[in-house]
């Protein structure tokens, strides 16, 4: 519970919200690209990476060979899957520059938007938890002071009433 009361919680929340905003802008870019996407048949020529796979592929547009890489492969066209030498469907857009994926741009946009929502909700929950727990901590400190017994540190005021 002390973690939620620390300022580190707010830093982490800000970081999560910032990442969520970046995901939102990438999702919008992919949504725009989905309106202009085209496809070509390509093939995987290498797979790299230690923790996660990176797929390297080659394809042609108007007779010109292009190479690309993708962190995921959702478009295998054969029973080989996304192994080396397998045929894949490459999605690309030429506006403003050539951008390629082994996944539809619309699907990628929706995935990024979902990630955006999750990151932002997580960040907002951290902020809410931080302020709720700090508020509770402040209330409990005040309540302890009101029940404290013992001599007061303030001097007592004396009221003198004249005799008649």
Description of the structure:
It is a single chain. This protein is of the alpha+beta class. It folds into 2 domains: 72 residues; 65 residues. Helix content is 45%, strand content 22%. It contains 3 helices and 5 strands. A 5-stranded antiparallel β-sheet has the order 3-2-1-4-5, with no helix packed on it. Helix 2 packs antiparallel against helix 3. The longest helix is centred in the C-terminal third of the chain and has 42 residues. It is rod-shaped and about 120 Å long.
**Uncertain spans:** 143-147
Strand share of the residues? 15-25%
SSE arrangement, N to C = HHEEEEEH
Q: State the helix count.
A: 3
Helix proportion range: 40-55%
Helix/strand/pairing category: alpha+beta
Q: What kind of sheet is the major sheet?
A: 5 strands, antiparallel
What does the radius of gyration come to?
A: 30 Å
Mean pLDDT: 85
End-to-end Cα distance: 65 Å
Structurally, the number of domains stands at: 2
Strand order of the largest sheet: 3-2-1-4-5
| Shape summary | rod-shaped
The beta-strand count equals: 5
Q: Notable features of this structure?
A:
5-stranded antiparallel sheet; 3 helices
């Amino acid at each position: 519970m002390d973690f939620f009361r620390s300022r580190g919680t707010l830093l982490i929340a800000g970081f999560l919200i910032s990442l969520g905003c970046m995901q939102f802008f990438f999702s919008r870019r992919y949504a725009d690209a989905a309106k202009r996407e085209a496809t070509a048949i390509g093939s995987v020529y290498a797979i790299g990476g230690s923790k996660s796979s990176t797929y390297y592929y080659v394809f042609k547009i108007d007779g010109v060979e292009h190479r690309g890489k993708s962190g995921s492969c959702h478009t295998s066209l054969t029973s080989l899957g996304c192994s080396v030498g397998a045929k894949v469907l490459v999605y690309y857009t030429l506006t403003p520059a050539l951008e390629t994926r082994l996944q539809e741009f619309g699907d990628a946009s929706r995935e990024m938007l979902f990630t955006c929502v999750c990151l932002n909700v997580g960040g907002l929950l951290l902020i809410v938890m931080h302020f709720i727990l700090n508020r509770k901590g402040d209330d409990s400190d005040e309540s302890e002071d009101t029940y404290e017994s013992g001599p007061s540190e303030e001097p007592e005021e004396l009221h003198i009433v004249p005799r008649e």
